[in-house]
Write a structure and sequence with these properties.
Blueprint lengths: L5 E6 L4 H16 L2 E8 H7 L7 E6 L13 H25 L8 E5 L5 H8 L3 E5 L3 H8 L1 H6 L43 H12 L5 E4 L3 H14 L4 E3 L25 H7 L6 E5 L8 H14 L3 E4 L14 H6 L4 E4 L4 H6 L3 E6 L3 H10 L3 E3 L6 H11 L3 E3 L6 H12 L4 H21 L4 H14 L5
Parallel strand pairs: 1-2, 1-4, 2-3, 4-5, 5-6, 6-7, 8-9, 8-11, 9-10, 11-12, 12-13
Helix pairs in contact: 10-15
């Protein structure tokens, strides 16, 4: 193929929150005349149903799990299978592409941060491995300091009672108010041999071997944490976000990167609502609730008297299809709209949306910030508790919810979140507007993320340069 200046192999972890930012990165690479080969599992590939073009090629391999396996809902088994079978499959893809006559040779591997086994493959072919961690910088930092937290006795936890969950951790630089309960959930276990505990401990330390570490964030949002990480990683950590601010990926790639079909009809409903009046509710692609939790959220929203848009996945409730209380649906039918999956970036940018009830996944968090929408945070797992803490206590652009959700708490926090008249609400929105403006400037020519993106592109196009 002529006209391409490089060829990048992109390999995300097969979960929605990892695929989306990798797709956004693919879009940017293609716009810079870099051919992209996007590798994923057969299971995920079939759900994405992407189409190869002259600029992006899709390759997939079996994850060796049964068809009815929960995948991301049974995360240790998925990770174990990918670690066992992934290396040979990915190496075969690279080998075939290196020998192919109709495509330029691969110039770098951009792999998910939790796939450090790609380092051996990159070394074999003499190309750089770039680790893309799809976490926040604060989440990545929490993982990085796992050995220190073990030495200091914070993790693993002594017992399951949660007796020290509110203890403030004092040993992580630039994260002075983080508590034990704000650490990523994979770290707050009682068994040192826990699979995910050991997996993340290994993977984050292996990040040192990568040529670069990419983070979808920006200096004005997480500057102190980024500076500390770069002191530890010899300036190899590049904040290149927010990726969503560069361009719209479907214009080039032709796929949104979503594993669910986006229901655009909700945008027409939003058009009919008053400005900043709607609370958007979405718990991401992996969070699961109990029947009781679903009911408490529902009745809290009903009691708030606010209009709401709720993206409610069919598999949101553990072990069954999500079913809302019929009386709740009846009582709120004049001010509610339900979809299975929403076009989230468009929803958050819509002028009718004034608040976001979220699981605090990093993609959702940064999308909300760059859209100027305050959040109420109910994290489920991974580094979501860390993101929640920064939203509530560091950036002060949202509220922390109690772990044991109640309708009273939901009603109260919705009221606080949507209040644009009191001084705290006004200040919260002023801060969000400032962070939004700085996000835009960060990806413009001369901005911090734009400069880091150029460093990344230089590594892709000139892999032998130091």
């Amino acid at each position: 193929m002529e006209g391409f200046k490089g060829h990048a192999l992109l390999f995300p972890f097969p979960a929605q929150g990892h695929i989306n930012p990798m797709m956004q990165l693919a879009n940017i690479l293609i716009s810079q005349r870099v051919l992209v080969t996007f590798v994923n599992t057969d299971f995920t590939h079939e759900r994405l149903n992407p189409k190869s073009t002259h600029a992006i090629r899709f390759e997939s391999f079996p994850d060796h799990l049964p068809p009815d396996h929960g995948r991301t809902l049974q995360l240790p088994e998925l990770c174990e299978s990918l670690q066992k079978y992934g290396p040979n499959h990915v190496e075969n893809v690279v080998t075939n592409l290196m020998e192919a006559a109709d495509v330029p040779p691969i110039t770098c591997i951009v792999a998910d941060g939790v796939f450090s086994f790609t380092q051996r493959i990159a070394d074999k072919f003499g190309i750089p491995r770039i680790a893309f961690w799809t976490t926040s910088a604060c989440g990545f930092s929490a993982y990085y300091y796992m050995p220190l937290l073990i030495d200091e006795g914070y993790i693993p936890l002594k017992d399951n009672t949660g007796s020290n969950k509110d203890q403030v951790i004092t040993c992580i630089p630039e994260m002075p108010t983080i508590r034990v309960k704000d650490l990523p959930s994979f770290m707050t276990v009682t068994d040192h041999s826990d699979y995910m505990f050991q997996y993340l401990l290994r993977e984050v330390q292996n990040a040192r071997q990568a040529s670069l570490v990419l983070l979808n964030t920006y200096e004005d949002l997480e500057g102190p944490v980024l500076q500390d990480l770069n002191a530890k990683f010899s300036d190899k950590v590049l904040s290149i976000g927010p990726l969503l601010r560069y361009s719209t990926m479907d214009k080039i790639i032709g796929t949104s990167g979503n594993l669910w079909t986006e229901e655009q009809s909700c945008l027409e409903w939003l058009d009919k609502q008053e400005e900043a009046s709607v609370i958007y509710v979405c718990f991401g692609s992996i969070t699961v609730l109990s029947d009781e939790e679903l009911a408490e959220f529902a009745w809290g929203l009903e009691a708030s008297k606010r209009p709401f848009l709720w993206a409610i996945r069919p598999d949101l409730v553990v072990g069954k299809s999500a079913a809302l209380p019929p009386k709740f649906v009846q009582r709120t039918k004049e001010r509610s709209f339900f979809v299975s999956w929403a076009p989230q970036s468009k929803v958050l940018c819509h002028p009718s949306v004034g608040g976001f009830l979220t699981h605090s996944g990093w993609n959702s968090t940064i999308e909300s910030i760059i859209s100027g929408v305050p959040m109420m945070c109910w994290p489920f797992f991974a580094e979501q508790p860390t993101n929640r803490r920064f939203v509530d206590d560091v950036w002060k652009v949202g509220f922390e919810m109690k772990e044991n959700v109640s309708r009273e708490d939901v009603e109260t926090l919705v009221g606080k979140l949507m209040n644009t008249e009191d001084e705290y609400g006004k200040e919260m929105r002023r801060k969000l507007q400032g962070l939004k403006e700085k996000a835009i400037s960060s990806v413009e020519v001369g901005g911090g993320s734009h400069c880091n993106m150029q460093k990344f592109l230089q590594k892709v196009l000139n892999p032998l340069d130091s």
